[in-house]
Inverse folding.
């Protein structure tokens, strides 16, 4: 009876129809503007174009880049690195983008391969759609340097700031800064603090800073609290000073914090429109999907109090819906992602685990061929943008390949075709557990499917024709609890999984993700 309840529940949930594209009424947009996992977003404007980049954690390509002309409709166009620089190891965090004299710069956080100390590197390009050239480490500071932000003052001098001492026992976290060289590739002179405890600064793990100048004051937006799992309490603070190097006054209360719908807001940057409106792009967890979908790209307008000069957000919490930055703009929200592999369009944006050799992926004759370059689990897939979705793929039968949800080599959930038939496997803490096995008819292709609820409950199916779906039973139930899949700081990815020896190949003919409530 219990298993029937679960089966009926999922049938009701996922039988509702959705349209491929929904549009918001003119003059209003919905958050998130970049759905899915894009922590620590950095945003810039170059004439009438906007570019955003975000954290990629341990997935490659590193640091996804998006483009927009209206701040609410964003398209993935490239990545900073197609594969990690040789000197790096893991934790690809908090990229800061800037643009000067025809060159794009990204100052990014990662860990050294030799000692795994977090430091800040820099990369440049003159064509943002073709990737960046790495120039290596620009800031290495004791045990940790993260969260770069670049600022140009009224005299044209460049400065870079960063979070320091986060891992230094017995020492408070500080935000430090230094002048940058004219080419943006090295530090100049002595560093200085922006959070001077000797003059009364009240620190609370300050990070994710952004500095702008308005009406004679430097304003520093920064985040405090826990950032990165369901215990988080992230929120945005602001301080100001007429002197970049001293005299910072802190506003006493958060100016942006979580709501019932959006939790743990923070680590954003500010961008101005041609008509001088200021918008803040930041990340936040959805209260329903939380870390299973990740910290999503949010946008809210910043206003300035005409009496006090302090900045504020209209409601002090993330907007579910807000006035468009530009008139006569409509927001497109696609509820279906589909690739039949007839072109190479999406291949560059499929993600893989940066901690193991990348699988080889090729598209030919309408088929995606994936070859593993190491023994064990290989993954290639996408960052989902909502927790309620249906993922379907056609697998051209090959040994130990299929679909699933992947966090890392030690954490995954997959439905694969193997010699023994259909196998549903859970990997937790590196331990493999077969949840169920079924013998299925031998054929040239099998359709596999799963339905996700809140990003962490899954119901698997298979089909011979892609129309008549047979549920995969797990013991007495149909639902699989994937709560173990969330890892600190980043969300799982979804897509293709191979589980075999180096050189094993799998072939797929299509991939479809349908979002149930994305409108």
């Amino acid at each position: 009876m219990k298993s029937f309840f679960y089966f009926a529940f999922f049938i009701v949930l996922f039988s509702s129809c959705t349209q491929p594209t929904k549009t918001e009424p003119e003059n209003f947009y919905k958050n998130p503007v970049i759905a899915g996992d894009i922590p620590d977003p950095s945003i810039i404007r170059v004439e009438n174009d906007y570019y955003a980049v975000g954290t990629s954690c341990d997935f490659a390509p590193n640091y996804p880049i998006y483009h927009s002309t209206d701040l609410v409709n964003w398209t993935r166009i490239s990545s900073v690195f197609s594969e990690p620089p040789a000197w790096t190891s893991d934790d690809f965090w908090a990229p800061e983008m800037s643009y000067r004299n025809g060159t794009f710069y990204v100052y990014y956080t990662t860990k050294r391969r030799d000692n795994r100390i977090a430091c800040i590197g820099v990369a440049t390009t003159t064509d943002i759609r073709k990737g960046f050239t790495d120039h290596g480490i620009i800031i290495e500071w004791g045990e940790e340097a993260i969260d770069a932000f670049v600022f140009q003052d009224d005299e044209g001098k460049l400065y870079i700031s960063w979070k320091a001492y986060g891992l230094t026992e017995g020492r408070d976290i500080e935000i430090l800064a230094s002048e940058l060289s004219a080419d943006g590739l090295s530090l100049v002179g002595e560093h200085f603090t922006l959070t001077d405890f000797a003059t009364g600064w009240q620190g609370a793990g300050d990070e994710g800073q952004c500095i702008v100048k308005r009406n004679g004051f430097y304003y520093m937006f920064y985040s405090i609290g826990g950032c990165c799992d369901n215990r988080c309490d992230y929120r945005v603070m602001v301080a100001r000073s007429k002197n970049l190097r001293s005299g910072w006054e802190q506003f006493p209360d958060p100016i942006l914090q979580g709501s019932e719908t959006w939790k743990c807001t923070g680590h954003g940057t500010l961008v101005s429109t041609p008509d001088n409106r200021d918008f803040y792009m930041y990340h936040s967890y959805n209260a329903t999907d939380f870390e299973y979908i990740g910290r999503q790209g949010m946008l809210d307008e910043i206003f300035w109090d005409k009496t006090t000069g302090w900045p504020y957000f209209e409601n002090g919490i993330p907007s579910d819906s807000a006035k468009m930055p530009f008139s006569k703009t409509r927001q497109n929200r696609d509820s279906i992602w589909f690739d039949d592999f007839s072109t190479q369009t999406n291949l560059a944006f499929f993600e893989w685990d940066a901690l193991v050799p990348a699988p080889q992926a090729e598209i030919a004759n309408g088929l995606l061929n994936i070859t593993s370059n190491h023994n064990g689990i290989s993954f290639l897939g996408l960052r989902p943008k909502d927790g309620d979705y249906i993922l379907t793929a056609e697998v051209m039968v090959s040994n130990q390949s299929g679909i699933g949800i992947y966090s890392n080599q030690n954490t995954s959930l997959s439905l694969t075709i193997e010699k023994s038939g259909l196998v549903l496997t859970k990997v937790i803490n590196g331990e493999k557990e077969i949840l169920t096995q079924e013998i299925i008819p031998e054929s040239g292709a099998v359709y596999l499917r799963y339905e996700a609820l809140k990003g962490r409950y899954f119901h698997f199916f298979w089909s011979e024709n892609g129309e008549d779906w047979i549920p995969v039973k797990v013991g007495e139930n149909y639902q699989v609890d994937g709560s173990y899949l969330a890892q600190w700081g980043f969300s799982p990815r979804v897509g293709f999984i191979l589980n075999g020896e180096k050189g094993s190949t799998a072939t797929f003919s299509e991939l479809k993700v349908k979002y149930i409530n994305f409108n």
